[in-house]
Amino acid sequence: MIPFLSGRHVEAAVSPERAVEAVRAAFVAYARGEWTMPPKVYVPAYPAGDFRAMPALGAGHALLKWVTSFPGNPALGLPTVTGLVLVSDAATGALKAVLDAASVTALRTGAAAVLAAEAHGRPGARAAGVIGAGVNGRAVARTFLARGHEVALWDVDSERARTAADELGARVAASSEEALAADLVATVTPGHEVLFRASSLRPGQHVSLMGADGPGKSEIAVEELARVRVFCDDWEQASHNGDLAAGVAAGTLDRGAVTELGSVLAGPAEGRRSDEEITVFDSTGLAIQDLAVALAAIERVGELDGVPRFAL
């Protein structure tokens, strides 16, 4: 019988700190060539949104995530992200579990944003600003808080920001400018508005750009990318579908100017080089991260109450 882990089951099984641990290990395994990840496939349904098929292989398992991103859905009373994660045994092909994709996505988004901030941020930086109080923005704020950071949360919907801050134990930023000026910043927006314009980042800041994960999206100006130290989750994916894509198209960024997070975590690549350096992490969301969180959830399936099971 195959277990189905709903959103509440995934959240009960995997804490933010466990997600950070699992995603860190996945980045390292991918950097060392131990895990593999074929390219993400986008199925556009613009301007409404898109569908994505994301495969990965690692730790004796194969994963396929079929997930949507429809930013206008909340106005219709629907979630922005929906979908399923399928995990199979890589030795036999047997399906082992099905998981809610939105909860897996939120956990790995929070983990990646904070991992990058802690890897590339200035030593001792504790104050974090989070832009966006949707499902994934809340996950990022929750993960920062779980790791001992102070969080100022801002959203275009002030009521949503207040509700999220009360729920999480964070503080509502007085303005977007205040949140964007924090030592550590994570932007979790639909990616339709540039938040960081030329010369807007100050020395020593770190920004995790989590929202621009598809064609045409951007949270930072190309001119600003050109003057900072740039990191990403995966060069091939980010250079085609992330904030980096605009820089590559403009000829201001190339492969030699960008360092992958996994290479820093695994050891061979250099991270932040000085307290004054400005660092930016471009995240497009990787299937290896989903696999890491899914496996962490499956490990605890026997401890969860009310998990439904089905036969093929």
Polypeptide structure, described:
- It contains eleven helices and 15 strands.
- The model has no long low-confidence stretch (mean pLDDT 96).
- Helix 1 (7-13) packs parallel to helix 3 and helix 1 crosses helix 11 (287-299).
- It starts with a strand and ends with a strand.
- The strands form two sheets. Strands 9-8-7-10-11-14-12-13 form an eight-stranded parallel β-sheet.
- It is globular.
- The protein is of the alpha/beta class and 312 residues long.
- The longest helix is centred in the middle third of the chain and has 20 residues, at 101-120.
- It folds into two domains: 2-104 and 288-310, ornithine cyclodeaminase, domain 1 (2-Layer Sandwich), CATH 3.30.1780; 119-285, 3-Layer(aba) Sandwich (Rossmann fold), CATH 3.40.50.720.
What would you say about this model in short?
With 312 residues, the protein is α/β, with parallel strands linked by helices.
The number of domains: 2
Q: State mean pLDDT (0 to 100 scale).
A: 96
Number of helices: 11
CATH superfamily of the largest domain: NAD(P)-binding Rossmann-like Domain
Give the overall form: globular
> Uncertain segments of ≥5 residues (pLDDT<50)?
none
Alpha-beta content class: alpha/beta
The overall strand count is 15
Report how far the terminal alpha carbons are from each other: 8 Å
Instruction: Name the CATH architecture of the largest domain.
Output: 3-Layer(aba) Sandwich
Helix content: 25-40%
Percent strand equals: 15-25%
CATH fold field value of the largest domain: Rossmann fold
| Strand line-up of the largest beta sheet | 9-8-7-10-11-14-12-13
